[in-house]
Amino acid sequence: MASDLLLRFVDRAQNYPSKREPELRAEDFREISDKYNVPAAEEQAGRCSQCGVPYCSVHCPLHNHIPDWLRLTAEGRLREAYELSNSTSTMPEICGRICPQDRLCEGNCVVEFSGHGAVTIGSVEKFITDKAWDEGWVEPIVPGAPRGQSVAVIGAGPAGLSAAEYLRVLGYDVHVYDRYDRSGGLLTYGIPGFKLEKHVVMRRVERLAAGGIVFHNGFDVGRDASLDELRAKHDAILIATGVYKPRAIKAPGVDSQGVVDALDYLTASNRKGFGDAVPAFDDGSLDAEGKHVVVIGGGDTAMDCVRTAVRQGAASVKCLYRRDRANMPGSQREVANAEEEGVEFVWLSAPEAFLSADKVSGVKASRMRLGQPDASGRRAPEVDPQGGFDVPADLVIKALGFDAEDLPHLFGAPELGVTRWGTVLVDNKTLMSSLDGVFAAGDIVRGASLVVWAIRDGRDVAATMHQWLKAKAKAGKVAA
């Protein structure tokens, strides 16, 4: 009976897909974990306790129907499992790869609370969608009846792509404008291949293009057209640019040669993976090979940088973070992966100055200690009076996170309202900005956050844009 396949968390051990050995995976940018085969996926899905109140779904920003598609997987109904997973997410296999499940669904799994180890939700999610691609179950986008209205989406990251898909299905003409030569945003150029191989992103983009969504790559709003010009051309606008301005470090020597921003470093590496010509990589400026690398920061971007440096053949890789391990924002799984690959973490340390003559030669670091909790609830780091230390470095990568760019200035739209953090100010219910018909979603509204939240925001803003566009069309007919 099907029920015999479920609730097997007591007699069936948690088993993630096996990881390649650290010394082997450090030689390339392929994803580090193997995939489940069908029996393993069904077996692990059958560990789900089928909770009456599924905390995994509650703590998923998309509120995916996790217990339901786990049950379908356990019963061997893989196509149905995929279709249910796909019903709430435009990118389930991407979320399965890069979501911090240890902080979201799996971290709130009741089986985890019982001491038996969480159900491997992310790995099953990745499996069923990859299986769907392999079997041809991923159907093309079917646009709704043409509405005679067009939408411009500024930004081809996860929020923009998610909204574009929903709007196209509703029958709108959708044009996506992005400054990069490939779509995907940070999925394409920010996240390394060992976490998200690029063909996984490109096949999603190709599916959207095949569904009639028009992509304008290499299009810089403010340079190639102002926001007002796009507003005149389209019935509604969605700003989904993300946040790309690197947070600064105020320390002597920060402008030294060899002190670089994380996104510049990661973009260069990802472009090389595509086979692009990257002069700043080829001349060694953004290549870690043979260098002593120091990464400043403790988030997921810092983890991407240290693990990329290992694969580029760095002589050594150290990560300096001002708090301790328990208080870092990055995924603990990523820290463990980095340590397995040879990265050294220097906890409770912060840069005081960057040592250099012609180029950087090291980091003068302060020892830190944790004081009283700050506004975020975490204990605030403060300088330890016992003194600091120097760390030799040929390449220093700043990975302290990202802030919003000055969009009113960049877009030639001074009337666009922004918050004191520079993010776009929107109505909480409609997600419309201070400009009529101009909406915003994703990191450019909430600040630097998770991909899964961007997908959720894209889904939400598509719904509010649809309501606004319908009202606009009805008003136009009445006026006519």
TrEMBL record:
UniProt KW keywords: 4Fe-4S, Iron, Iron-sulfur, Metal-binding, Oxidoreductase
InterPro entries in the cross-refs: DPD_II, FAD/NAD-bd_sf, FAD/NAD-binding_dom, GltD-like, Helical_ferredxn
Keyword Hydrolase attached: no
Boundaries of every FAD/NAD(P)-binding domain copy: 150-458
Keyword Zinc-finger appears in the UniProt entry: no
A Pfam family this chain is assigned to: Pyr_redox_2
Domain Dihydroprymidine dehydrogenase: 25-136
PANTHER family, per database record: GLUTAMATE SYNTHASE [NADPH] SMALL CHAIN, GLUTAMATE SYNTHASE [NADPH] SMALL CHAIN-RELATED
Name this polypeptide is given: NAD(P)-dependent oxidoreductase
Species of provenance: Sphingomonas immobilis
